[in-house]
Amino acid sequence: MKESKGLYESQKLAIGYWIVAICLFGVQLIFGLIISYQYIQPEFLHKFLNFSICRLLHINSMILWLLFGFIGGIYWFLPLETEREVVGIFLGKIAFIVLIAAVSIVVLVFLLVQIGKGEMLTLWFITEGREYIEAPRWADIGIVAVFSIIFFNVFASIWKAKKLKGILWVLIVDLLAIIGFYIAGMFFSPNISVDQFWWWWVVHLWVEATWEVLVGVLVGWVLMAVLGTPRKIVEGWLYLEVFLIFGTGILGLGHHYFWIGAPEYWLGIGGFFSALEPLPLVAMIVHAVYDAGVHRLKTINKPAFFWIVAQAFGNFIGAGVWGFMHTLPQINLYSHGTQLTAAHGHLAFFGAYVATNLAIIYTALQRIRLPEESLLDGTLWKWVFIGLILAMLGITAPLTVAGFAQTFIERAVGGSTWQAYIDAQLHPWFKESMIWRMGFGIMFFVCYLLLVTDLLTIGKRKATHQQ
Amino acid sequence: MSADSVLRMLLASLTFVLTAGLYAFFYAFGRLKGSFFWELFSFVFALMMMLSGFFLVSCPAFTLFWKFLLIFSIFSYLIIPKAMLWVVKKIHQREEEGRLKTLK
């Protein structure tokens, strides 16, 4: 039911999700700074908070805050689409509390039990041990349960409202895929090749395919809200984007199967589709340029608009350019697992997902703090926007240089020997890059603090002035 | 394959997609503005994209299958900006027609 402020209960739940998301963003950055310092000073916190644990928490908190942001986006826009309160919102609130409790327990366990035996008890209650999805199995089941509740909320709301629009169709199918692909990561096999085969379904198909489609849905809603883009245009583009992403992205998964012991044909399949994977991202640039030109940059929400534009370009540069650079097997043979992968990961996640979440949050803030059709603008967000982008480029550039050093010295010249590894790690290209990365990491954290300040204050001063 | 050629291939791959994106950007920008200069400028990047693509094709590390794949990619990235602009314009045109019909 709508309250006096005009917010649905599910929109209030969305705000809760975003508050947790922004807090987890901070956690991600703190652990990121710790590991960047551990690259310079490896003894730092040694045996107390090891690199492996800090890296685990850096990456997992990133995945979680992005997910919290997306879920918030769904709960924010769904009642606007269906023009009614979300069905089963009480269940949604319980899922939110359960998710926070589960995340807190998992993080505490990670910090308290850093070393242990590799047995089934560990797999179920401490960690599954798989890179990026280390959460224990009980938490995995919890994640699937929470997404099932979200699926129920979405499906039941649409069913009851009898408003199955194109965007909602895509959302329903994508939520099913999100649940299905995550389950693929829960199989355990003592055969490392088989285990990795399924693990990549989560890491590639879950994060890179289903998330991209979810982002397409959310960006579509943001475009309608901040630019007034007609629904038919958004839907037409969304269908095309889904077609291109799935057309190139599903078998693009093959580029992860190059060196895990999968059959040789994956080299060809993976290479072919990976070479075409940047196509939808190039197409997105064409659309962004056209739409920005047609609307003559006229918007009622400046920060959201700029973050959406940054999303189109950031996605292309991070995922497309930095991804393709080392995706062909002839090159990947030498560059696999170097800092080039880290550079690609940082830039792609920032461009594709961080930018989207910030755009969604700014879109909601306008609705919460300003009268309808009022312009959301200010000064601080511009500094944050420029600062975060520069800092991220500053993190990525040294990582790329370090990756080049590793590829060249450790792999191509040294032939991947232990001595070659040490030579690459001690090379000035690598060592100095780590210092630069740390410096830009601090800059990123300062910009994050400014972002939090802006999110807490934007629109408020104007509202007070108007009163 | 020499160590130097690995680095060259890395740089060529980076340039290949980066210039494909810049070509798409300036092509769409030029067409939108109706500016022949920007459209022409976009072809500089298209040329750079083709050059880095053909550099990859000429690398002995790639067998015939991979050379065909790379040539296919070069043509795909050449066509996509033009094709996408056509699609985007069509979507906008159809929406405009629908809107006008509703107004009538």
Automatic annotation (TrEMBL), chain A:
Lineage, uppermost ranks: Bacteria, Pseudomonadati, Verrucomicrobiota, Methylacidiphilae, Methylacidiphilales
GO cellular component: membrane
InterPro entries from the UniProt entry: Cyt_c_oxase-like_su1_sf, Cyt_C_Oxase_1
Enzyme class, UniProt record, top EC level: oxidoreductase
Species assigned in the record: Methylacidiphilum kamchatkense Kam1
Keywords: Membrane, Oxidoreductase, Transmembrane, Transmembrane helix
Name of this chain's protein: Nitric oxide reductase NorB subunit apoprotein
Domain of life according to the entry: Bacteria
Entry keyword annotation includes Membrane: yes
Transmembrane intervals: 12-37, 57-78, 90-115, 135-155, 167-189, 209-227, 239-259, 265-292, 304-325, 345-365, 385-409, 435-458
EC number: 1.7.2.5
PANTHER family given in the database record: CYTOCHROME C OXIDASE SUBUNIT 1, NITRIC OXIDE REDUCTASE SUBUNIT B
Pfam name, any one: COX1
GO-annotated biological processes: aerobic respiration; electron transport coupled proton transport; respiratory electron transport chain
Gene3D superfamilies reported in the protein's UniProt record: Cytochrome c oxidase-like, subunit I domain
One GO MF term attached to the UniProt entry: cytochrome-c oxidase activity
Coiled-coil boundaries: none
TrEMBL record, chain B:
Regions that span the bilayer: 6-29, 36-58, 64-88
Keywords: Membrane, Transmembrane, Transmembrane helix
Name of protein: Uncharacterized protein
